[in-house]
Amino acid sequence: MTSAAASSSPLFTLDTFLKQQRREPTSHIVIGNEAGDADSVISAIAWAYVESLYGTDAAKSFMTPIISIRRKDLETQRPETLMLLGLSGISTDCLIYVDDPIITHHDKTLQVTLVDHNRLTLPLVNYKVLEILDHHADLGAHIDATSRLIAFRDGFATVASTCTLIVEQMNKICKARAFPASLSVLLLGVILLDSVNMLPAAAKGMERDQAAIDMLLRRTGWSESSAVARTVLRLDDNDGLPDTNALFQALQDAKFSSIFWDSLSVYDALRLDYKRFESLQGSAGFGSSSVLISLDDFLNKQNVHASILSFMKERGINWLFVLFNSIMDGNPKRQLMACTTSSDMDAMIDYLMKQETLQLARRDDPLPTTLSPKVQTFDQGNTKASRKQVAPILHSYFNVQHQAAAL
Fold first, then answer.
1. What is the pLDDT of residues 367-395, one digit of tens each?
2. What CA–CA distance (Å, rounded) separates 50 from 265?
3. Which residue in 24, 64, 166, 316 has a CA-CA distance of 20 to 30 Å to 211?
4. What span, in angstroms and rounded, lies between the C-alpha atoms of 294 and 298?
5. To 10 degrees, what angle do helices 387-406 and 345-353 make?
6. DSSP output for 267-298
7. What's the CA gap between 162 and 17, in Å, rounded?
């Protein structure tokens, strides 16, 4: 199989488009979730580009992608995303970030496309959501949006990545055009990461993800790739097509780098992939941090307990759940830490232990038992249950607690 030959070139290359939007941002923005992982960053860039350059809605102006984290955080805490941007030839100077004036000092009502989440969070809560592309549990917000494409059903995501949804839409929008290599390498890399390279044992990748991967391989003009991308993708050794195993491994190594994670303080490890979740109106929200080292390595960091308390106070939460995801002897390992400043830890422990989906086993780590926050740690038997499965379970607990208190 050989890669597609480019049948037409877009008006703007991806790099030129991003520079132009940096200079002249529009009032229609595309933004991912507050954790700012690779899927959120890349899907925002990709969808803004695809809709602006190839979209069929003549009423739409160009759309401006917003990186949902600060520039410093992207450059120091997202090694796998930085690698992908480099392969695409995109400089961080070309991008607009969540703390840039378009967000912090905008004098117009912004129109918003949400990717990789489906409810606006601060500081955008008062803006108008026009469309949603997501693969998380539907929170029922923005029901008047023109388009709500949410790939989540019966408690599970039906795709591993929002980037898969974008490839599906590209197939419709771009018709016979070849996909630009600079765009395809971004999408391919994220889908491989989120699906864990489509490994059956990981049970993350779906048929739609594989179809998107195949479509990118088949419809992209890979010969246009940069010299750096050609090397990482091993194009010259694979009949001009990307070696998906090589790309996945390079990104995975960057993402799980022990040198990188060991260098982070407890505070930075918690904020790197943090999301706040809101329960029913009037009930307290909770926070969740995804950390890519083992619980034991995390507990060996300095000032663990005090740093957790400081992190929770800064974000105004009474509950924080830390989800640990690491690789041990080549096998995935998941663990969970529940932290609270309230008096309900025993009830939470009982609730979590009854969740057969998670298969939790309590640990007896040497943590303070009388100081706030109270902390309980668990080993998680079901290594396939990620935050997409854990968050709805926690939502159910807090919603029930809120309803009971209201009686």
1. 776 677 899 999 999 998 898 889 889 98
2. 38
3. 64
4. 6
5. 130
6. HHHHHHTEEEE--STTS--EEEEEESS-HHHH
7. 21
CB 63 within 8 A of CB 48: yes
Classify strands 28-31 and 64-67 as parallel, antiparallel or unpaired. Answer: parallel
- Whether the CB-CB separation of 89 and 182 falls below 8 Å is answered with yes
- Preceding peptide of 101 cis, ω within 30°: no
Partners of 220 in beta bridges: 179
**Cα(142)–Cα(146) distance, integer angstroms:** 9
> What is the torsional sign of CA 383, 161, 159, 253?
negative
Residue 7 has pLDDT above 60, yes or no: no
Strand order in the sheet with 274-277: 274-277, 286-291, 319-328, 331-340, 374-380, 360-362
Separation between Cα atoms, residue 52 and residue 45, nearest integer Å? 11
| Parallel/antiparallel/unpaired status of strands 331-340 and 128-134 | unpaired
- What is the identity of the amino acid at 43? S
Contact 96, 21 (CB under 8 A): yes
Size (the chain), residues? 407
Return the bridge partners of 149, or none. Answer: 133
Q: What is the mean pLDDT of residues 201-216?
A: 94
Asked if the model's pLDDT at residue 288 lies above 60, the reply is yes
